[in-house]
Amino acid sequence: MNRYCLLVAGLAPLLGATGTFIQAATLGTGMLLVSILHQALLAPLRTRLSGAMYWLASLLLIAALASCLQLALRAWALPLALALGHFPALLCLQCLVADGLLPAAGRWRQLLTQLAGLLLLYLLLGTSRQWLEQSLGWHGASLGFGALLLLGSLLALYNRLRLGHALSRRQGTR
Questions:
Q1: With 0-12 CB in 10 A as exposed, 13-18 as middle and 19+ as buried, what is 38?
Q2: Cβ–Cβ < 8 Å for 28, 118
Q3: Quick one: which of 113, 93, 118 has its CA closest to 25?
Q4: What are the angstrom distances between the C-alpha of 22 and each of 112, 135, 149?
Q5: What rounded mean pLDDT belongs to the chain?
Q6: Is 62 exposed, middle or buried (0-12, 13-18, 19+ CB in 10 A)?
Q7: Could you say which DSSP state residue 47 is in?
Q8: Rg of the chain over CA atoms, in angstroms?
Q9: How far apart, in whole angstroms, are the C-alpha atoms of residue 40 and residue 77?
Q10: Cα 28 from Cα 112, distance rounded (Å)
């Protein structure tokens, strides 16, 4: 199992809980808060702990932050919390990915850039799914496969509009 398996598992909240703009904004804001708080609270421990103790402290901190997020949603926005289900708890995977893949130097700038891009993707996908379902009447947009198709279309559009040519890479040597 490589370290990018967790990155793929981080797609579950993005595809599963962005049926409307409100759900996408709530989950995106929660992802932003949990990730930034996790990195900020873990920063003093990074120099003192190493190995298994560091990962245990990281997991306990992520679990506490995700639990606080779910309790806050249940306290202040119960219908929204019920609609999101257990997807806020899956934000822990994105925190683990960010902690494992970020370099030591330039950590905050890269983290904030990635989180801003992910928040934009949440909002864009939620808005698109809500518009497709309500305006065009495509019920598939509210389901998981519709979200996956829409995400693929948005990524294809991004690749088409991106400046520059894609690099050609060979998959082996001859």
A1: buried
A2: yes
A3: 118
A4: 22, 17, 21
A5: 86
A6: buried
A7: T
A8: 18
A9: 26
A10: 13
User: The tokens of 30 are what?
Assistant: 């929660």
DSSP code string of 64-124: HHHHHHHHHHHHH-HHHHHHHTTGGGGHHHHHHHHHHHS-STTHHHHHHHHHHHHHHHHHH
Average pLDDT over residues 118-134: 92
Q: Distance (Å, rounded) from C-alpha 103 to C-alpha 101?
A: 6
Which own/partner pairs from 4-9 qualify as long-range (CB within 8 Å, at least 24 positions apart)?
6/93, 6/96, 6/97, 6/100, 7/97, 7/101, 9/90, 9/93
> What would the pLDDT profile of 137-154 be if each residue is shown by its tens digit?
999 888 888 888 988 898
Q: Tokens in use for 90? A: 């899956």
* Number of residues that make up the chain: 174
